[in-house]
Amino acid sequence: MEGVIEMAGEKPSSTWYHVNDGFFYTVTSRDKTRVYLRCYRKKTCKSRASMPVNPQERNKETFRVLTKHSHDPDFLQEKLVSLKRSILKRCAEEVTPFLTIWNEETARIDSQLMSELSGRLTLNSLRSSMYRARTAGQPNTPKD
């Protein structure tokens, strides 16, 4: 039985949870027995879910969707976040030009998948994040 999958979210220290149904959640609160979640699209979707606190008890049966989503499932979101994270990681660790990093990382992805992602992630839409990652990855210069 496949369980609840924990993955890195879009932001550097965020965590998302999903059960391979195309919907992703972030933690909002917890009590002694349950972790309460909400859809990662918190501005437009009011969906809520809960799961057991104990990771060994988490599966599709114990993962409860409490409120339905106001959008369709997004089966490409996990791949989109993975691509974005790999690009930003390279920007932070290397001094390679952004266009080169973009071309190399997108070349690793299946062309069919990349054509589906092309409207959602472009070099221009990612450029400011790439600059932030690059400056955050550089050591501070000492001041006299």
Walk me through the topology.
Layout: E1 5-8, E2 15-18, E3 25-30, E4 34-39, E5 48-52, E6 64-67, H1 77-93, H2 98-107, H3 111-117, H4 123-137
Helix pairs in contact: 1-2, 1-4
Describe it for me?
By secondary structure, the protein is an alpha+beta fold. The chain has 2 domains: 5-67, no CATH class; 76-137, no CATH class. It has 4 helices and 6 strands; from the N terminus they run E-E-E-E-E-E-H-H-H-H. The strands form 2 sheets. It has a 4-stranded antiparallel beta sheet, with no helix packed on it. Strand 1 (5-8) and strand 2 form a beta hairpin. Helix 1 packs across helix 4.
List keywords for this structure.
2 domains, four-stranded antiparallel sheet, 6 strands, globular, alpha+beta, zinc-finger, zinc ion binding
Number of strands: 6
CA-to-CA gap between the ends? 60 Å
Helical/strand content category: alpha+beta
Question: How do the strands of the widest beta sheet line up side by side?
Answer: 3-4-5-6
Provide the succession of SSEs.
Answer: EEEEEEHHHH
The count of helical stretches stands at 4
Tell me the radius of gyration: 18 Å
Shape: globular
Mean pLDDT across all residues, rounded?
A: 89
Proportion of residues in β-strands: 15-25%
Major beta sheet, specifics?
A: 4 strands, antiparallel
* Total number of domains: 2
Which parts are unreliable, with pLDDT below 50 for 5 consecutive residues or more? Answer: none
The amount of helix comes to 25-40%
